[in-house]
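yo

u said u wanted the structure for the complex thing, so here. seqs first:
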Amino acid sequence: MSKLCTAGILGASGFIGSRLVEWLILNNLAEVRPIVRSWKGMARLSRFNLETWIADAVNESALEKALSGCDVLFNCIAGDRDVILKSTTAAYRAAAKAGVRRIVYLSSAVVHGFNPPVGTQDDSPIILNQPFKYNVSKAMAERLLRRLRVDGAVEVVTLRPSIVFGPRSVGWTTNIALDLLTKNAYLIDGGSGICNTVYIDNLIEAMWLAAMSDRSPNRDFLIGDGERITWADLYDAVAKAVGVEFSAVPSIASEDVSRIFAEQRQAQRRAALGRFVWAVRESLPFKAKASLIRLLPPNLKNTLKQVSVPFSKNKGSAMLGNEKRSFPELDLEIASLQQCHYVLPITKAKELIGYVPRVSFSEGCRRTTEWLRFAFGYKQQ
Amino acid sequence: MRNKPYKVALVGCGAVSEMIYAPLLARLVQERLVEIVAIVDPNSDRTEKIKKVFMTSRSYQNISSLFDEDFPDLAIIASPHKFHADQTVACLDRGIHVLCEKPMATTSTDCDRMTDAAAKVGCVLAVGHFRRFFPSCELIKEILDAGLLGPIESFRFLEGETFSWPAQSGAFFNRTESGGGVLIDSGAHTLDLLLWWMGEVAEVEYHDDALGGIEANCRMRLKMVNGAEGIVQLSRDWPLPNRYVIECKKGWLAYTCDVVDRLEWGLCKSAYGLNAHIQQILASGRDARLLGASVRSFTESFMAQLRNVVASISGSESPRVPGTEAKKCVTLIEQCYQRRQLLDMPWLSEKEYKHARKLANV
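structre next:
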């Protein structure tokens, strides 16, 4: 290649976007143009001597200016449904006007659900009717992009990674580490569910291949590490990195998830009511408090008495939420993900764009461990 | 105490002026301690924003035009780092007292220019290391100076977060304007406390991750003249524990960043530690050791700094952080940059790290 291609990176300050910037520069593959929403997004990127563009991902004209002269746009925008959908449209239209040849859109394997049916492949229909907002947003964005690309103005490649882990991953690296350290981690069925990991650098390489390949345009690809990894494997690796005994992580049977979740929600509501009652009681003068209590019907009086007890015994500790818990607080999204039993295939990406996950899961874990120890301040250089 | 309020010019209308200086100065205006006469910033949108708080003030695009029309008693320099020295010297040369934001300057030579200018005209030159006004930080200084826990043996200061300061320009991220990255920015606070508590540095080894730009992460190993050895790690890339631990011969102390009213401490051989709430002394003397009200908050600590500067101008107090003191921190930062080595980043591939070395130019 005589001239390096110019790559616009939308969402360049985030976990995936910032690693893409770093990877392209350190492998000397492209002229990089990071695009961030505000000045503060430059902190991580300013390690390099490069020009960063400020443009809101939902502002089409600002994006058009930022993308002028770019060959490829990597859309790594994260956010709520509104941001995801508006930025998808704005980025496509701006890219078309700016003459960008191709968009690599970073979607997610959750468009097939947290627990995709056995046999799910890259071309399986995406699921719009899902209980989790993020999954629906990504599915809607893909549908939107398919409609937009009909005009043929810009080639579009959609990548669907699942559990992206590695340095600077909040969801699947540091949150797990923090949960392990604070005893808030748990596993469903001992972590035997399939964890469709993709080490960050494998995903980045897939993004690059998607941008360069002649066989990728207007296709969707599932991207993973191509290994059979369980949730226990991932948690075990992170536990080792931060010095937590993996065997101490509690397990819950999948059939108990709904019941425990409902119980915890009820306890949370009760605690919230207790805090409210305590706050009202403390804010009222004694006489007003006594009069108010006298006016209440007996059943409500008893209920309020019960819920407010733990919060009136010891203001400081109760308000800090030091109640003993029998089990870490369940997150339904995590619990659902951990009940996956299917390894998503990466055959199509291998065949069409030559994707080979070069970093094995164990090597990915080694690199992640090195970073975690640094980022948590463990390592002494 | 004089009857007329001190005339103040606010130079630089970035986030710190909008979020911290403006509301606090507005209180001092109400107390008739100061009057904001001038607001200086090349960006008129920014000056207009601050002018909404100080309606009677005049705005200027640069400090020269300020001097043409106004003569404040005090200038608060809150502009990008590279302007600190020139703007401070320009004010001092005209007999205007200065409170300069941290870092005092980007080089120790500039610090010398600033302190010389202050000495020449006998004006106050204070530097905004406002953490020295935190009760927790003051108490640590007192405990260490009193030798309560024995001599300091080691320390470990870890401070960092994903950069979230609502920067109003790219000045923070450009070496020419900022003088560096996390080290000279938030690190100026960290190193100022370190030097205040522990004295001079004997040796320093410094690593960061700048690859042609400015560092987002850095780590240094320090040996102090008093024999203590330790680590300082800073990040604007990632949240660190935000905790400073100081190990002494008999016990230990821990400060959580920006927590003004607590400190943790314990004895080396004890299985227990204290998470101590700091309160003001209500009554002292052998028969009545009583604790009273809570200590001043984070914001009030910043306010205490402003009051200290005003009191220093009136001659009733001395500046807690004069230029001569703040220079020590700039000198240490300068030493770090001079000796910089590339941070070990074993999460990169060999090929990437090799290229990183080239970009880092070390």
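Residues 96 and 153 of chain A are 6 Å apart (CA to CA). The longest helix of chain A spans residues 257-283.
cya
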